[in-house]
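Model: Ready when you are.
Researcher: Fold this.
Model:
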Amino acid sequence: MPRRPKHPRLPNGYGSIRYLGKSRKNPFAVHPPADIDGNRPPAICYVDDWMKGFIVLTSYKAGTYTPGMEATLEIPSSASSKDLEALASRLMADYNRVKGIEPEEPEKSFTEVYEAFYANKFPEGHKYSNATVRVTQAAFKNCKSLHDKIFRALRSEDLQANLDSCPLKHASLEHIINLYHQMYHYADGQSWCDKDYSKFVKIKKEDDDEHGVPFADDELRVLWKNVQDETAEMVLIICYSGWRISEYIGLEVNLKEKYFFGGMKTEAGENRTVPIHSAILPLVERRMVKYGKLLPRSQSEFRADMEDLINRLGFPNDPKRTPHDCRHTFSKLCEKYNVAENDRKRMMGHAFGNDITNRIYGHRELEDLRKQIEKIKVNL
């Protein structure tokens, strides 16, 4: 269903034009300015076109309005909506100039908000890696359908449609959502948006990150020997809990009852519980005391830190090792130590496919899952 066109914002004290619904013959109510107490007076008239309402209000402000004049107004069929809105904008600019009202800043496009956000995040001499910069630029490039749209007018369905149209891997889609979140956070601070619509966007495609290279047993032993290294510490946490790297950012950590809660917004992945394996509990506690969260750095920064760690430890890095390899390691450990397959799927946020019984009736208590995850042994 096509949206109603977005009309220019009327200046304070000009009056208002309210849309009452498409079921009415004359759906636009034209009201004079509110009184001193902010009460809206009754409508001057009702018209079938916003531009007619604007002409009536302009006449009313000029003192030339006569009752019934709206019936004589005709909007030329040859005039485009863009031309008419441009005319309205010029008239309001003239009105503001005569009244000494400062003109409002034009609404920002998605591209303009991105450029301001980018300049703020990556000033000259910034601390971020080249990888972080490239990921941010690539995510913006993959938002082409949004580039020219007014940022304030965007809704979750616009963001979702852009995401759904991208033929990319799950990890790249995560980068787009991450950019959405960062841009809305920045725009909110600038009063360029009314609401964060990015939090309603979901990745609908199945996770394709199971094609990574799991760490071998001897590599895990090396990581445990270097557990005092903060990057190695986080790598081990992922290897023994199995969340996607993007999920650790907003993950709820319950140290009292020893579990993680959260998940990406996919049908199978959201709102899931994973017990904290006893081997990584001290690591989790240490990070929560120090940072108040598990991942104090951005995904891109952690990826760069992990690449540096892999090189320092002398691990094979072709193909390039990524946080997805840690998640794949968890899956491999579950298989090696005979963790129930359905519980492995639950903890990793995998869909059950056509298995309706498990999908609907497969609720598992925390302690049931804890018995399964504790089957995984740490061989130092």
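Researcher: Now this one.
Model:
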Amino acid sequence: MKKTLSLLLAIMMVIGLFAGCTTNVPAESPTNSEEPAPTEAVPTEPVPTDAAPETTPAAEDPSAFPMTVTDQIGNEVTVEHVAERIVSGYYISSSTCIALGLKDKLVATEEKTDKRPIYKLAAPELIGTIGNVGSAKAFDLEACIAAEPDLVILPKKAKDYAATLTEMGIPAIVVNPESHEQLVGMINLIAQLTGAEEQAAALIARYDEVLAKIAELTANIADDAKPVVYMCGTSSYLTTAPKDMYQASVITTAGGKNAGDELEGDSWVDISYEQLIAMNPDVIIIPTNNMANGQPDFTAADVIADEQLKDITAVKNGAVYNMPTGFEAWDSPVPSGVLGMLWMTVKLHPEVYSMDEFAADATDFYKTFYGFDMDTPSIFAETAEKAA
């Protein structure tokens, strides 16, 4: 009888052990011999601003990798793990990486980091200490490979290099932020591959807040009260933004009408004096560039002094303004581009939004996402200079 009881107890213990082992194995976990299931590709269409990223950051969910995404020109790219060594060959994607808290992962960037204010202000430790892969027109493939990246981000102009890198087994995505929606899509794409979804969600939420604020401020402005705005290129004031260019959206968002809306294309268009005179803009805006001096090849004073433009409304009223220098080109689709929309709102409709309010909003934006205190007196200095 004792032997029988002992045998029964032994059997029950064995059964209990097996039961305990089976409950500790997740039902859907792949075995060592199985490959992890691939994730869904990122949609090729721009991600809307109200689309929320994944709730679990990729860096905390290694099972999301290998991850196959679709970049902004339709290429499918597979990344084996959360990117830790990033080469960014485009100043807009580099600025995005800084805004997303990824500057420690940057191992090489585009050339002239010592000339771009955003590096000096937000990431001085990167200047002269990491690799230089040149420009989109003269991309340094060898320097890129030498940096041993596990993710390369390139602009559309360098798409052939992206294809070459991918063939070599180095994941390379192409970004093309030519609209606000595409900017948001680029931010989400980079965040997804780097584990920066939370930072991306915060940045995009700020965009939504800014756009909603501008919409509310300009909601009651009648169409005939919206000024015609001429946006110059940085090389000549006889170059302007056509209707499909990002700069045109900056104007319309801020409650203006783009003088170049009759022109086709999505890049700067050369025009004649006769065309500019016929447009007769109420306001002329001279954008900055992304370099240290921020100055284009001409000034507001040059435009006002041009005898051929003396009868244009903007010139007669002195409504020719340079965008503030020393930060980024706010007329372009950089992560801080929404500040250009706010600044434009000040210049077009100061009765609904003041320069003091803009300075506070801009200061908070850069402190929150780039970690530096903005030199707001420089904004007022620009305004005073142009008003003189």
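Researcher: Key takeaway?
Model: The first strand starts at residue 67 and ends at 70.
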